Input
Amino acid sequence: MYPNPVQGTTTIAINLDKPTEVTTNILDAMGRIVLTKNYGKQNGHAVMNLDVNNLAPGSYTVLVRTNDGIATHKMIVQ
Output
């Protein structure tokens, strides 16, 4: 994920072996889901943009969900 810290939009890049649904959940410091985005089926080197303009400055957890599992990243919104 880059850039991090982020203002406006961040980019998530993942490598996928096969076509799979990709969804991101953004959790605030209390663990509440504050943003969900479904990117549909992705394959290969997938690059997806995530608009965080509506999030207050702070620390968030980004969950990237695919059929194969979940990857977790920390994100700082400025």
